[in-house]
Amino acid sequence: MASVTSSAAAVLTASEFWYTACYCEENVYMLCKKLSQSGIAIHNASDLFVVFISNAKKQVPLWCQKAGSSREDGIVIWDYHVICVQRKSSSEALVWDLDTTLGFPEAFSQYVAKTFRPWLELHPDFQRLYRVVAGPLFLKKFASDRRHMKTAEGSWIKQPPPYACICAQDGSTHNLEEYVRMSKETVMLNRASYEELSNLEPYGAVFTHKSLEDFFGARTSIENLFKI
Hints:
There is one protein chain. This protein has one domain: Protein N-terminal glutamine amidohydrolase, alpha beta roll (C8orf32 fold). It starts with 23 loop residues before the first helix and ends in a 12-residue tail after the last helix. It contains six helices and eight strands, in the order αββββββαβαααβα. A hairpin with a 7-residue loop joins strand 4 and strand 5 (94-96). The chain has helices at 24-38, 108-116, 135-141, 176-180, 194-198, 209-216; strands spanning 48-54, 60-62, 76-78, 81-86, 94-96, 106-107, 129-134, 205-207. The protein is globular, with a radius of gyration of 17 Å. A six-stranded antiparallel beta sheet has the order 6-5-4-1-7-8. It has a two-stranded antiparallel sheet with strand order 2-3. It is 21% helix and 14% strand. By secondary structure, the protein is α+β, with helices and mostly antiparallel strands.
């Protein structure tokens, strides 16, 4: 199946977005800003949702990742990963992931099938949870001083982006761990208010895989996984 793109989205390629390896949260922050400023998303980013993927053990398997290029299936075990999902009123939701080998953007159902492979029975330590945060809330509240990318001696584990650290509108300088922190005890299951949950201040809410698919309307099946 070909990637689903709008005519506006087709104008921008992945190379036109800020990208720094191992700084997926900042990549997505900058991506949300560019999508809303360029007219590909609504100007206030209200059709965008930031999704943190992790679990209590901080080890989640994702397939079709550029970092897994040494393997045919592209699998990587991340401590966490961050993507942007754009909800569309007249078509399927789109996933914007600068680390995927799939389309950019990719149809949500295809991304879920090929990246999460939800029919596989994972060991409990690898079962994914998803913190979903409404785009406007994330752009307002997110902050990172990049401390997680420094050794105890203060040297960089991975070189940071060239722009200044991201500060929240309230002056906060670092809250990344709050977005990544999740466990089964933090899962929100009120199916009638997914939209409200994603807007919960300050960090949205944690979803199960089923609630994630319910919210974004995935139509995943093994039969159509590799249709061209």
